[in-house]
């Protein structure tokens, strides 16, 4: 594996990450049927997570089952990102010929057509995905929203995002993308509505609570912002960004002891995090607790 590990790494772009999050929802999980496939799967995941795309594509094809699953999806994505779009399309077409009723495969084809600069073909593939799999129409509507966002078409993006949240009320990714869309377009009340919906979905993340907190802070709702950031902190007390933001909000409300306690707790729970130890040191220094601050800075330097 050493030559492959040394290969050029290329992180996935933000838009492609959104598409892949959607594809993870569409395709069933892969099931290892042998030790060899399990090994290929582990290698593929390593290459995929590290942006070594051609190796990831090859290994995922080795571990994919005869039916379309997440390993096959990742193989197609990896080959396209490796600049092997023609090969990715050939593999997709072969499997699509065997499974012409798979909406997920058509949606994957829509993404592939977009990446190959064939937008009209992409739209036809996405529409075909919707038609053959009406039971999951909301997922394909969300795919159209991603397409509109990439094309910088806010009117169509709002239309499809709003429809997708109505059809997928319990899906975090749909509510969150819609909330961010409205925030980016300075429609804060609509953004707050969808952030609050997002916090009620299964699998709500600390980052979602943190974004809600930042929006409430921008809306001059300090109390609400602190409450949201506390929720984020409960879920991710190892995040320096969340910890610092919560401490900053508390200081802004005059609760200096509360701010320092948040920083202290994060540092105690994560004693190997230089960022959190330094944050605690900064907080202590701000309260003229010089000995305490110096101790934390020394600990941070030793990590």
Task: Please provide a written account of the structure.
By secondary structure, the chain is mostly helical. The protein folds into 2 domains: 1-132, Tetratricopeptide repeat domain (Serine Threonine Protein Phosphatase 5, Tetratricopeptide repeat, Alpha Horseshoe); 205-303, Alpha Horseshoe (Serine Threonine Protein Phosphatase 5, Tetratricopeptide repeat). It has helices at residues 2-5, 14-26, 35-49, 53-63, 70-81, 85-98, 103-115, 119-132, 137-150, 154-167, 172-184, 188-199, 206-218, 222-235, 240-252, 256-269, 274-286, 290-302. It is globular and about 70 Å long.
| Number of self-contained structural domains | 2
Name the overall outline: globular
Query: Mean pLDDT, as a whole number?
Result: 93
Task: Evaluate the radius of gyration.
Answer: 23 Å
Q: Give the CATH class of the largest domain.
A: Mainly Alpha
The assigned CATH architecture of the largest domain is Alpha Horseshoe
How many helices in DSSP terms? 18
List keywords for this structure.
single chain, 303 residues, mainly alpha, Serine Threonine Protein Phosphatase 5, Tetratricopeptide repeat, 2 domains, globular, disordered N terminus
Which secondary structure elements does this structure contain, and how are they paired or packed?
Blueprint lengths: L1 H4 L8 H13 L8 H15 L3 H11 L6 H12 L3 H14 L4 H13 L3 H14 L4 H14 L3 H14 L4 H13 L3 H12 L6 H13 L3 H14 L4 H13 L3 H14 L4 H13 L3 H13 L1
Helix pairs in contact: 2-9, 3-4, 4-5, 5-6, 5-7, 6-7, 7-8, 8-9, 9-10, 10-11, 11-12, 12-13, 13-14, 14-15, 15-16, 15-17, 16-17, 17-18
């Amino acid at each position: 594996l050493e030559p492959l590990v040394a290969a050029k790494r290329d992180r996935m772009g933000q838009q492609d990450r959104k598409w892949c999050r959607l594809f993870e929802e569409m395709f069933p999980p892969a099931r290892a049927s042998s030790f060899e496939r399990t090994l290929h799967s582990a290698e593929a995941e390593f290459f995929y997570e590290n942006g070594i795309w051609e190796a990831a594509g090859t290994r995922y094809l080795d571990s994919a089952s005869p039916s379309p699953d997440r390993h096959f999806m990742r193989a197609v994505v990896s080959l396209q990102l490796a600049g092997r779009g023609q090969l990715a399309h050939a593999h997709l077409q072969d499997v699509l010929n065997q499974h012409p009723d798979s909406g997920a495969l058509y949606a994957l084809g829509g993404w592939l057509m977009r990446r190959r600069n064939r937008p009209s073909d992409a739209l036809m593939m996405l529409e075909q995905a919707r038609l053959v799999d009406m039971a999951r129409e909301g997922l394909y509507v969300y795919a159209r929203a991603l397409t509109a966002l990439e094309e910088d078409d806010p009117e169509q993006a709002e239309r499809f995002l709003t429809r997708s949240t109505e059809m997928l009320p319990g899906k975090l990714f749909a509510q969150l993308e819609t909330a961010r869309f409205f925030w980016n377009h300075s429609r804060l009340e609509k953004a707050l509505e969808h952030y609050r919906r997002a916090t009620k979905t299964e699998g709500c993340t600390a980052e979602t609570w943190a974004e809600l907190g930042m929006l409430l802070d921008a809306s001059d709702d300090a109390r609400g912002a602190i409450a949201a950031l506390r929720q984020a902190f409960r879920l991710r007390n190892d995040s320096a960004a969340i910890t610092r933001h919560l401490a900053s909000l508390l200081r802004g409300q005059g609760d200096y002891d509360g701010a320092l306690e948040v920083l202290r707790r994060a540092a105690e729970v994560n004693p190997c995090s230089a960022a959190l130890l330094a944050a605690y040191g900064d907080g202590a220094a701000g309260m003229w607790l010089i000995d305490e601050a110096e101790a934390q800075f020394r600990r941070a330097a030793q990590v």
